[in-house]
Amino acid sequence: MEGEQLWIRRLLDVGRELVTELDQQKVLDRVLQTAREVTGAQYAALGILNEQRTELDQFLTAGVDEDTHRRIGDLPRGRGVLGVLIDIPEPLRLNDVGLHPSSYGFPAGHPVMRSFLGVPIKIRGEAWGNLYLTEKQDGDGFTEQDEEAAVILAAWAAVAINNARLYENSELRREEAETAIRGLQATRDVAVAIGGEISLEHVLELIVKRGRALIGARSLVIMLREAEDLVVRATAGHAQATPAHRLPIGESTSGQVLERGQPERITDVSARLRIAPAQFGVEDSHTALLVPMVYRGHGVGVLAAFDRGEQGSEFTEDDEQTLRTFAASAATAVALAQSVQADRLRTSLAAADAERRHWARELHDETLQGLGGLQVLLSSALRRDEPEHSRNAMREAVEHIRREISNLRSIITELRPAALDELGLGTAIEALLERHREQSGIEVEGALDLPGQPRADARLADDLETTVYRLVQEALTNVAKHANASRVLVSVAEADGELLIEIRDDGSGFEPDRASDGFGLAGMRERVGLAGGTLRIDSGEQGTLLSTRLPVRRAQDAEAQLSGHEQAAS
Asked: What is the pLDDT of residue 431?
């Protein structure tokens, strides 16, 4: 009776241990070990059925050493007596397995096995596999108590295996969910970058950092297509590629990936990658994942990831799919950033051309014609050789020179007013308003909350002062030329770290979104955008209001930042 209680307690202890174990392989190993202990079997095996439940897909053993395994050869697939339990999933106990009608016998080198006990393992009522026990160690056959213990153990095993499978599935789904969330977050960040129209360099930096974290790569390199080359533009992780390093598309594996538009996983970088990894700035890499970036059917570039995790393991199919999905968003971001960059360049070139045409007209219509008239006057005086006529001509020449000096001063002031450098933004704008009062005949009012001549440590950055001055100057010029206004109010003030600029007129208004051959509004938007600000135009029959907000930057801060960049570069 005491032995039976110990036997029951042992099975209960084993059951508690099994159902708390969540690693399926450990559960199976523990089942085999415990089955031998409680039944006295020398050998134990677990046969796991295939999906069709027609034969054994896996065969795990305990008590058989490696040498014996090699001598036996191929593992059983479920023929003979083992197949009986597949066809009839009920306990089977035999004193001599070789005497059973279905016995096939044993292959050469197989250990001697006579006594046999087999019980099915059913999970949720369906056969999952079988527990096989052979060669009772005391020489006698297996008993009813052994069979009962094996049946109980098989039931515990079914519960434990089911728990482990559920846990593994839940962990897999959790990992998939985390990967999906990381992918969505990375895609969201790229989408935000697109919406913000930030610089191409910032977009590329965002892509390589998010992409590397997304698949756990040690290094990630982004290469963009330029003519017949791929050019390294950004790196993350351990990569230290030389900026703008070029790889020929026709002679590189990355180029093949771009041309085919299909990803490639590389398990041996040294054998498959046609260009040494060092040219990517990646030393001692072993595996790689190359994914094309395609936008509207056009290959934009390639994402090249090297070595998964710190151990440099191979990239998986899931990694490939994840990075491929991310690359689609990245390609869109890059294409749009390149488009914005190209538009800004075209706008800047147009601005420069417009400025050159404007000043060419000014110099031709004013200075050049004035100098031509002066030349004619003096030439005429020289030919006549009359003292009185020469004196009158010289007096006229002096007056011509005075007017041209005045014209040149006006042009110089338009290009870069001296008051802006010498006296500050407030004084320069006041002088600008006064000139427009005199020249346009429009009532110009100013509400300037800016110091006339600020302290050196309070001066705004030079480029910001120029932006504000040019914005007010262009707005007043547009009002004078096109608005048919009688009154204009200019307000410039600094508040809460921003410069607030408003120019309001009582003119006839216009449609701000209508395309125009002129450069005025495009130039304003370009200047404000480069300064990191916002510009809004409201126009109608009541007049026009131009509103701008610009972040404040001080001259001393800009100089300190420039100095820091120079030191970092040296």
From this structure: 86
263 CB burial (10 A radius; 0-12, 13-18, 19+): buried
- Residue type at 475 in one-letter notation: A
Q: What 3-state DSSP class applies to 246?
A: strand
d(CA 465, CA 474): 14
Closest CA to 282 of 220, 211, 231: 220
How crowded is residue 516: how many other Cβ atoms within 10 Å of its Cβ? Answer: 13
CB 327 within 8 A of CB 291: yes
In 3D space, the residue among 230, 232, 289 whose CA is nearest the CA of residue 259 turns out to be: 230
Q: How many CA atoms lie within 13 A of 37 on its CB side?
A: 12
CB 487: neighbour CB atoms within 10 A? Answer: 14
**3-class SS string, 455-524:** CHHHCECHHHHHHHHHHHHHHHHHHHHHHCCCEEEEEEEEECCEEEEEEEECCCCCCCCCCCCCCHHHHH
**pLDDT given for residue 257 in this prediction:** 92
What are 21-30's pLDDT values in tens digits? Answer: 667 788 788 8
Q: Is 127 helix (H, G, I), strand (E, B) or coil?
A: strand
Rounded to 5 degrees, φ, ψ at 499 are -100, 125
Residues of the chain below pLDDT 50 = 1, 194, 197, 515, 517-519, 562-570
pLDDT in tens, 375-387: 666 676 666 667 7
Structure tokens at 461: 């950055």
Measuring CA to CA, which residue among 396, 469, 400, 380 is closest to residue 430? 469
Residues 94, 100 contacting (CB under 8 angstroms): yes
Secondary element (H or E) of residue 224 = strand 217-226
Q: What pLDDT does 501 receive?
A: 94
* pTM of structure: 0.42
Rounded Cα gap, residues 13 and 246, in angstroms = 66
Q: Output the six-digit token pair for 64.
A: 């058989």
Report phi then psi at 306, rounded to 5: -125, 130
Structure token pair of residue 100: 């059973």
Distance (Å) of CA 531 to CA 405, 527, 541? 34, 6, 31
Those residues whose C-beta lies under 8 Å from the C-beta of residue 286, and which sit 6 or more positions away, are 268, 269, 270, 307, 312
Backbone phi, psi, residue 307, to 5°: 60, 105
* 550 touches 496 (CB < 8 A): no
Annotate 362-429 with DSSP letters as a single string: HIIIIIIHHHHHHHHHHHHHHHH--HHHHHHHHHHHHHHHHHHHHHHHHHHHHHS-HHHHHT-HHHHH
Burial 535-555 (b: 16+ CB within 10 A, else e): bebebeeebbbbebebeebbb
Copy the structure tokens of residue 380.
Answer: 């005429």
* Torsion sign, CA atoms 508, 512, 513, 517: positive
